[in-house]
Amino acid sequence: MKHIQKMIVAVLVSAAVIIFIYNFTSNSEGRFVKANEPRSTPSTTLTVINNEDFAGTASTHRFDIPAGFGYVKASFKNTGSKHFTFTINEGSTSGTTITSGIVPADGEEHTYFIDKALSTGGYYVNTSSAQGMSGILDVSLGIDVN
Predict the structure, then answer these.
(1) Residue in 67, 69, 50, 37 with CA at minimum distance from that of residue 125
(2) Is 40 helix (H, G, I), strand (E, B) or coil?
(3) 67 CB-side CA count, 13 A
(4) Which pLDDT tens digit goes with each residue over 33-74?
(5) How would you write the chain as a 3-class SS string?
(6) pLDDT tens across 104-133, in order?
(7) What is the DSSP-derived secondary structure letter of residue 78?
């Protein structure tokens, strides 16, 4: 009787392994993707500001763009009760404005993409609100617009 139980367990384990191999395959980065889903190479990204808190009436965060990473994605989460504005400036806090916007006070993440390649160098994310603000900032760089 134990021999039959061992054979049943072996068959079930073998079936599970076959199903796993059939449904999933490893991509070149060692992560598993579904076999029937398209495999695209993800864009290379570099996080330069990660979950930085900010508060008050004004804040500034500096980041550098290294060679090869010209595309910027900035994500803001407004955790306060009033909207705030932001600018991304090149070279200094008052340098050429690359982009700007208003982030509503809804607790949601709002993401802004700069769809033209920027030069290497220093950039500044400035946030401000006359009524005070609080939020979280993430900035990532990419090698292409995707």
Answers:
(1) 50
(2) coil
(3) 0
(4) 333 334 333 468 899 999 999 999 999 999 999 999 999 999
(5) CHHHHHHHHHHHHHHHHHHHHHHEEECCCCCEEECCCCCCCCCCEEEEEEEEEEEEEEEEEEEEECCCCCEEEEEEEECCCCCEEEEEEECCCCCEEEEEEEECCCCCEEEEEECCCCCCEEEEEEEEEEEEEEEEEEEEEECCCC
(6) 999 999 999 988 999 999 999 999 998 889
(7) E
Q: Using the structure block, give the residue that is written with the tokens 């607790």.
A: 107
Instruction: Tell me which DSSP letter residue 30 carries.
Output: S
Does the pLDDT of residue 76 top 50, yes or no?
yes
Q: Residue 20 in 3-state DSSP?
A: helix
Residue 140 in tokens: 């990532």
Q: Is 60 helix (H, G, I), strand (E, B) or coil?
A: strand
